[in-house]
Specification:
Length: 128
Amino acid sequence: QVQLVESGGGLVQPGNSLRLSCAPSGITLDDSAIGWFRQAPGKEREGVACFRYADNKTSYADSILGRFTISRDNAKNTLDLQINNLQADDTAVYYCAAHRAVVKLNVYCANPKNWNYWGKGTLVTVSS
């Protein structure tokens, strides 16, 4: 059974940083990809950053403007999302998702409907 557990969300002030973690289990990571997505109130879910384990390939949404970094932590067995210079527009529930055998990572990252397995999300609120 595939499980994905997100952590690290919370209330942060604009300009600060946050690190989210996704802990996957029940899935063979060597042939899988994990993506981070977010859904703001009243908006559709959108892809933020994705990672393919076989070759450490990453893909980022153009909208995040280089403030986000996705990375694997082998010691903790997590896939992390570092978010710098948080803005009010970053307020959203952040989800991680997994899928096997992702060939075109950028294409998959752009469409949440491509992903089979989802975590329950972690809320990030950016407010002063």
